[in-house]
Amino acid sequence: VWEKCLSIIRDIVEWQPYKTWFEPIKPVKLENNVLTIQVPSQFFYEYLEEHYVELLAKILRRELGKDARLEYRIVVEKGSAQRHPATVDMPTHYDKPQTQNEVDFPLFQQNTPVKNPFVIPGLKRIQIDSQLNPHYTFETFIEGDCNRVARRAGKAVAEKPGATSFNPLVIYGGVGLGKTHLAQAVGNAVKKLHPHKTVLYVSTEKFINQFIDHSKHNAINDFIHFYQLIDVLILDDIQFFANAEKSQDAFFAIFNHLHQSGKQLVLTSDKPPKDLEKVQERLLSRFRWGLSADLQVPDFETRMEILENKMRNDGLEMPKEVVKYIAYNIQTNVRELEGALISLLAQSSLNRKEIDLDLAKKVLKSFIKTSSKEITIEAIQRMVCEHLGVPYEKLLEKTRKREIVQARQITMYLAKSFTKNSLKTIGEHFGGRDHTTVIHSCQTVKDLMETDTAFREMLMELQQKVQLSAL
Ligand code: ADP
Ligand code: MG
User: Fold this and answer.
1) Same domain, 288 and 304
2) Per-residue pLDDT at 104
3) CB under 6 Å to ligand 1: residues?
4) Chosen domain end from 309, 342, 364
5) Range of the domain at 443
6) Sheet hosting strand 34-39, strand order edge to edge
7) Higher confidence at residue 448 or residue 463?
8) Would you say the ipTM is above 0.95?
9) C-alpha 212 – ligand 2 centre gap (Å)
10) Which pLDDT value is given to residue 369?
11) Alpha carbon of 2 to those of 37, 48, 91, 100, 223: distances in Å?
């Protein structure tokens, strides 16, 4: 059959392209009207798809009948530069969704048949596993004041990917506030509403690793080409682009191509795009083309709703007062909120104890960050001395050596912010200095923090140490 096809193609296609694109093809098998052909590279496959798919479809249908189909098998020579290791591993925390017409990154696997049914001519027929967690949907993403804009923008984008002014949609916010969940909800909704669209979720770390892998094999173009085939690209945690210059270049090319072709980009970041450091200005300016929406810490009502919804979905039960206790006390982020719930359930089943307020208080102790221990001036003095390598006694003496003076000032400042002692008491702890010295010290430290980045960083580290010591 293939010979027959070739002879027809030979008549239609010019000699040069015929030689380049058709002669290297090997027919593999013909089964149930599905003809499998072997091509030497992914690029080859793309090129055929791009330029000859109509022709091939027509000829095959004439030879094999209406329901003829073509499958590609990409066989890359061993040891050639064209290796395609860009397989994206499935995250392990959920089962791989088994949809029949999905092939796991087919273009990038050796010897994998690529299904190419001629069903919708003219459309990109690439089928890839979108790497989405099916549980991350809009339905399970509770709306509150903290996320309303972002969630609604996400819904609008999912309804009309690429066709709203929210392109790119940048979702930003602190850790555990739902960036990944919301970004994936967009992807899952697109797949539902627009089944023929190609959606891909990828973390920026993975993107960078794939890029490095491809550049090692001189296959950067393949890498970029592949991403340019996506209809909805979700790139998580773009702050990891910091300092990855070459990956940023590749992403720039991909971004431009997708944006120009009306494809949708959804990005997440742990800070507002304008504050992203070590990311090229040309990228940042493109992020401003669309919409940036932030996620805040949910308020009490929303936290209650999130917990109750989670319990409903997982078929869990516990007394309302306990749920309230968790929602009231965990004010950091949603991940911790869920973590607290799960710990409590685990403790209860381990110790075969009913979940009640007492158990909740015990279990949640480790989650709730109240300063239970009192911080003393002495403790701060010891910490500063250790951190800066200054002998403790020197703090109390009259030494005017610069580093000692600064250590003294820092210690006074920290004592002022972390203890309830009066200025007078603080002064007394430094070999009997008076309160004006303490005031002056605190001011000096504040000034230095404004002007000296290294100093500020050092001080923030110290502050963290002091805070942790109180837990
Ligand atoms: P981030 O990516 O911002 O660090 P995640 O998207 O991983 O945060 O969210 C952390 C956890 O909190 C996930 O289990 C997610 O399902 C849950 N979560 C976050 N926000 C919400 C919300 N509004 N409603 C329901 N669950 C949420
Ligand atoms: Mg995340």
Assistant:
1) no
2) 31
3) 140-142, 147, 173, 175-181, 306, 334-335, 338
4) 364
5) 377-469
6) 26-31, 34-39, 69-74, 113-116
7) 448
8) yes
9) 22
10) 59
11) 9, 16, 41, 27, 31
pLDDT per position as a tens digit, 385-401: 988 999 988 888 888 89
Q: Which ligand is nearest to the CA of 333?
A: 1
The answer to whether position 33 is within a domain reads: yes
306 plus 337 within the same structural domain = yes
Question: Do 204 and 238 sit in the same domain of this protein?
Answer: yes
Number of domains in the chain: 4
Write the pLDDT tens digit of every residue in 260-282: 999 999 999 999 999 999 999 99
Could you tell me which residues are beta bridge partners of residue 208? none
* H-assigned helices in 351-390: 357-364, 377-388
Which ligand approaches the C-alpha of residue 203 most closely? 2
In terms of domains, do 203 and 268 share one? yes
Give the distance (Å) from ligand 2 centre to CA of residue 52. 41
Same domain, 308 and 281: no
Ligand 2 center from residue 92 Cα (angstroms): 15
pTM > 0.80: no
Find out whether 141 and 260 touch, Cβ atoms under 8 Å. no
Asked if residues 337 and 142 have their Cβ atoms less than 8 Å apart, the reply is no
